[in-house]
Design brief:
With 316 residues, the protein is an all-alpha fold. Helix content is 46%, strand content 2%. It has twelve helices and two strands. A two-stranded antiparallel ribbon has the order 1-2. Residues 21-313 form the Plant heme peroxidase family profile domain.
Length: 316
């Protein structure tokens, strides 16, 4: 009887090690400088280009929203497979170069140790803090996925209804409606091209502030470049703050879905609450980012640690 109990206890201790789990400070023993290396590269880029925060936030979400946070969005297409990054939903997603830069530095310091999935998560966290957003810890220990297929990308577009977006966040991602509204706060540092919202300008949209409408009509009619862009937060477009919510409450949402968050009964209360409390936004945003970054992660012996983020390792 004692022998059975001992075996069961050993099994209980071995099981978590076999399957692994995310934890804060995962690389403390295997690559002690991992997080500081990520932070230094991100800080250097941020000092030259403050829009990198918006790029990383979008990259992180578009990775997690497809097959979980497994860095599958970084994989390049091959002759036999069209990858996620080729999807229309991922048009204009950028930040791949900074992830590659971090990865190259980490491979020199700690070969085949730090996953590309963790790099995305850490880099996004650091960029958010540099942009005035919350400073928070993220658990690490993610592994990289082996599959990236364009057919798996089913992210709703900017003209989708609140109910469609909510269903995607609730059922596909396991996030609450409140967390969804909070994560939309990432739009406080984002931009949108005219092609994403010019359908709202063809005839005056009663849900859009007339002043903003006139400004956007002028921008989009010029077409000096092929598809001009404008900040989603017209006031503090480089700061991670709750300004986005005060903007959409004033009918100054650029994207249809952004504006609908402030109008729909299922989300308006959350918008109003966050708009009136910047400290609460910072706390909620940090918590929502940590939860989003844990969606369907690969851990333990699952997946791999890619040596180069754009291609899976050679398993031959």
């Amino acid at each position: 009887m004692k022998k059975i109990i001992i075996i069961l206890l050993l099994f209980c201790f071995i099981l978590p090690l076999a399957f692994g789990e995310l934890k804060v400070g995962f690389y403390e023993s295997s690559c002690q400088k991992a997080e500081s290396i990520v932070k230094n590269v991100v800080k250097s880029r941020f000092n030259r280009d403050k829009t990198i925060t918006a790029a990383l936030l979008r990259l992180h979400f578009h990775d997690c929203a497809v097959s979980g946070c497994d860095a599958s969005i970084l994989i390049n297409s091959t002759q036999s497979n069209t990858a996620e990054k080729e999807s229309g939903a991922n048009f204009d997603v950028r930040g791949f170069d900074i992830i590659d830069e971090v990865k190259e530095t980490l491979e020199s310091a700690c070969p085949s140790t730090v996953s590309c999935a963790d790099i995305i998560t850490l880099a996004t966290r650091d960029a958010v803090a540099l942009s005035g957003g919350p400073q928070y810890e993220v658990p690490t220990g993610r592994r990289d996925g082996l599959v990236s297929n364009i057919n798996n990308v089913k992210i709703p577009g900017p003209s989708s209804s609140v109910s469609v977006i909510s269903q995607f966040f609730n059922k596909s991602l396991g996030l609450t409606t409140q967390e969804m509204v909070t994560l939309f706060g990432a739009h406080t540092v984002g931009v949108a091209r005219c092609s994403f919202f010019d359908d709202r300008l063809s005839s005056p949209d009663p849900t859009m502030d007339p002043g903003l409408n006139a400004k956007l009509v002028k921008l989009c009619s010029s077409r000096d470049d092929n598809d001009p862009s404008t900040p989603l937060d017209q006031k503090t477009s480089l700061l991670v703050d709750n300004g986005f919510y005060t903007q959409i409450l004033a009918k100054k949402g650029v994207l249809q879905i952004d504006q609908q968050l402030a109008l729909d009964q299922s989300t308006r209360g959350f918008v109003t609450d966050i708009a009136s409390n910047g400290v609460k936004f910072q706390k909620n945003f940090a918590n929502a980012m940590v939860k989003m970054g844990s969606i369907d992660v690969l851990v333990g012996n699952q997946g791999e640690i890619r040596q180069k983020c754009s291609v899976v390792n050679n398993h031959s």
